[in-house]
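Hey, can you fold this?
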Amino acid sequence: MTMLVACREAHSQSAPSVDAAGDEREILKQKRETFAKWEKTEEGRAYSVSTNKKSDTAGKKQYMDKLSPGGKIYFLTCRKDYGEALKLLDAFSKRDTGSGLYVKAKCLDGMHRRLEAITFYTKARAKIGKDFNPGPRFYLHFSAAQAAAGQDVEALKNLKIAIQKSPSAEEYSSTRSAVVTSALKRLYYLEEKKGKFPLAFEHYLSLAGTDKSQYTLNEPITADGATKARAEKWLKEHSVPPKATDPLARCKYFTTAAKAYLASGNIVKAKECLASAIELREPAVGNFPAELTDDPTTGFRQAKETAANLLITLDLKDKDLKSACKHIRATFVTDPAREDQKMLTSLSMKDVSEIATAQDRALHSTVAEERLDFGSPDWK
């Protein structure tokens, strides 16, 4: 069995069963409520970064004062205060443990010092054993640094290990489905980066649970005189899109304008309008990232998918698989091109047990890891 077949089978086995659109909305609602409660805790407030710098500093210090040296390093790393974390780590007695080396790698990676990060990820991997036995996040982080440095072959190997480790994801405050889906998106983006556009496009389709048959051009490229006249009249009367505060209205406008341009024979302008439509995002709710607010059952998501499908259809008609890959990525809530920056980014405290103490664990909530997987609140 090839790595890709094994990955795809793991994805199909781990995909959650959602019986109705209401179930998805309920899952998003519950997750937002859980995270909102955590953000009001002492730990949540310590992670927060707002316009009130004095308050932020006080909350951060108050929480850090209760942590061990290793707990402080873990907290600062997760908070993305990488320079501060490295300063404490360099003076820490357990800096050469697998946990310490992993944290250093993560900090260097966060500072975009990829090659140095890879060196320390490699050193940490050499320490894997009884005391340091990391879960799937370690391999996702390692592969991300390698991919950023152009080491695609090695990155693929670590993605495979992450998927192999996915059954243990819940022990590390994640889920098998999240790990496998994230790894596959990164894997398929590597294919796209290498110029394997037909293969990457087929794999993106499989991840979305669809196939090429849906991309049929319902709207004709050319139109009769009367239809063309009506299209040109509409374009003259609707030269300005709705305000930016209404993404649904803007999405529908750009899609309608694109169809009008198609009817009038202006393919270039039609594609420009559709590209504008699929770049739109719904406003975030409070401090929550788009991944938790971009409900796939809303009218906006459906309108955006309509625009994306039409644009991809035009790409396929032109046999432009490079553009088709770019545009199908826009249909995912998290673009595979930014998956390593947006999903499963946090450190699990279980992965750094050599530097964290019982007191650190008592002050820590695994909800923090789930929330931080989407980025720091408000945050950074």
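Oh, and this one too while you're at it.
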Amino acid sequence: MARVYKRKEGVIAFTPSTQQRLQLSRNYHVNRYLVKLEVKHTNATAKFKDENLFALINGLQLVGNGNENIKQIPGNKIWIDNVIATGKSGKSKIEKANGDKVSYVWGFIHLSMPNVVRPIDTILNSGVFQSLDLNIDWGSSANLGSGITVTSANLTVYSDQLINYKRNAGETIKYYEETSLNEEVTASTTEMTIQLPVNKLYKALTIVGVVDGKRNNALIKGIKLKSGTTVIMDWNAEALRVFNDFNYGIENDEVLTGLTDKLKYPRFKTNIINPQVII
């Protein structure tokens, strides 16, 4: 019988504009990682960008065997995943007054896909890897906003694992992979087309409009998903935000500003030609 095993994996210290690595344990099936980002900073009329401290992380990669990317996301995706999985933005304390301060945020890195009937189907068997690393690409003080100087920071990582978990006979190993893409939009842009990788089973596409570090509802007017001439969905942004509100039980509307999480149901597989998202 499987039983829960929780442990502290380690701490990744902040060094501006560098990549730091934490070697993770590989003995068990990992349900998710719980992380705490604690930042010591000095404020002088501080103005924080959205997602607050998670913006300090330019990129996060969970990598198996040195070259298999299971997660490849910006730091603010941790906050987004918290909202989508739980309807809450997570425990945090953001000090905005002038002076020397200590702030923190908590979040999950999910390995079992949330909001599905059987999340355990995608639990990560870390034992199949020769190495499993969490890489953090740190930004700088400017990532957080203006009037903020980071003096030190640490990302503490905890694992939520199962011991003696066994899959059903003949059941294949599936990974809950996440990747990201940033595209710049200019004032003259009226429509943008994003090409999607093929031969993938997509659970959802999360699209966020950001202006000057703040999520913005006015940036995205609508989203169309198509493959060749086949249109899979075509909704305006307001309909998508209402859909999110009903499905995720969001604690308040402001949490969803600028965020559209598409196609919670159904899943779709891009084994069809030329899959595109048109915004």
